[in-house]
Amino acid sequence: MSEDSANPRGATMSISRMAGALQELIRPSFGAGARVPNLAVMEDGHAGLTFGFDVISASGALLGRYVLKLAPAGVARRGNTDVYRQAPLLRALKRVGLPVPDVPWASPDERLLGAPFIVMERLPGRVFVVWEPHPSFSREPVALRPLWFESARLLARLHQIDWSNALPDWEAPQPLRAEFVRWPSVLRHAQDPRWLAAGAALGAALESSLPDGLPLGIVHGDFQPGNILFENGAAVGLIDWELASIGSQGLDVGWMLMTSDPAAWHADWRPVAPICADEIVSAYRDAGGPAWRDLAWYQALAHYRLGAIASLNVKLHRTGKRVDDLWERFAPSISTLFARGLELVAAASIRSAS
Fold first, then answer.
1. 118 beta partners
2. In angstroms, rounded to a whole number, what is the distance separating the alpha carbons of residues 299 and 348?
3. pLDDT in tens, 235-252
4. Strand runs (DSSP E) across 11-147, as ranges?
5. Can you tell me the distance from the alpha carbon of 94 to that of 79, in angstroms, rounded to the nearest whole number?
6. Which residues of 22-49 are buried (b: 16+ CB within 10 A; e: fewer)?
7. pLDDT-based confidence at residue 77 (cuts at 50, 70, 90)
8. Cβ-Cβ contacts under 8 Å for 225 (sequence gap 6 or more)
9. CA 277 to chain centre
């Protein structure tokens, strides 16, 4: 297949046409001779289509490196498929000093690239994927523990931002109860009846013990070291904002605790996390993080959410609708996620009753 006819899955135009459109986009900023070479799919993209590209001058000098995120074709523009909504969010966070990518170009319409898009600067560093870290990361606890502490401190920085001033017109706060409207419709795709039963039981237990949902503020939605760029042990970038919202900030703390908890995962899919929950929470609180109540409940909610997401993605993979072998390797952990979630919510209920 030629480059001109090769459309990345979900894109509405070929790579070569996309590169041409991007050249027209960037030339007012870089000059008429600027070109866009090396446009290619980034395999670690999430909800939107994600591409990397360089900008070079007429003489071949590198002028910048960027990441393009496109909204997927043929789906409603809401939540994680509304790529453009990240532009005002990231620009606001950049203004208040959070280490997020700058967004020099973005558009909510489809005229230029066939879908809404954002173009972000490509930050240095490498993410720490907790289940399968890149070989460049040491496996020694003395080197890994600081990455988790850095992550907790970065989360505290995010949670301290006054969203009403930084993002007054972005989105309305999401009530915590909305979690129990959204996720049952995702969980119903579980093909294994044991997953469906355990997930439904966990959801019911969580809904019956709902906390007040405070504090309210900016929520990343997938906060864990796999979405943080590290360079020389320092957190230099927080990326992948598809699931961001204004909501209960305990969601982020619970999610991070889930990713670090060995009891949540099948033996073949354990996180590389030489740190305990209390240490993460202490680092977060010491850095000024405000969401430190009801964390067993919020971690259990994270198990419910990810278990539902995984159930859907395993189905999409096994039916050939969205093939991704990662979800086959993830599948044995769906049962452990739900089981550990039920333990946590039971423990949270006992503590609140005592």
1. 69, 106
2. 10
3. 999 999 999 999 999 999
4. 40-41, 49-56, 62-70, 105-107, 117-121, 126-127
5. 21
6. bbebbeeebeeebbbeebeeeeebebbb
7. low
8. 127, 128, 129, 130, 147, 148, 151, 259
9. 20
Please give the angle made by the CA atoms of 19, 118 and 56, to the nearest 5 degrees: 40
Task: Please name the residue that has the structure tokens 């706060």.
Answer: 173
| C-alpha–C-alpha distance, residues 125 and 114, integer Å | 31
The yes-or-no verdict on residue 3 having pLDDT over 50 is no
CB-based contact 183:203 (threshold 8 Å): yes
The residue count of the chain comes to 354
pLDDT in tens, 153-204: 999 999 999 999 999 999 999 999 999 999 999 999 999 999 999 999 999 9
Q: Which two tokens stand for residue 293?
A: 């109540």
> Across-strand partners of 199?
none
SS3 of residue 281 by DSSP:
helix
Cβ of 54: how many Cβ atoms within 10 Å?
Answer: 15
pLDDT 10s digits, 252-287: 999 999 999 999 999 999 999 999 999 999 999 999
Q: What is the mean pLDDT of residues 25-39?
A: 91
Helices then strands, counting H and E runs in the chain, come out as: 11, 10
- 181 phi and psi, to 5 degrees? -100, -40
* Cis peptide bond N-terminal to 215, omega within 30: yes
Judge whether 70 and 117 are in contact, CB under 8 Å: yes
Does this model's pTM top 0.70? My answer is: yes
Amino acid at 120: M
Counting beta carbons within 10 angstroms of the beta carbon of residue 153, is it exposed (0 to 12), middle (13 to 18) or buried (19 or more)?
middle
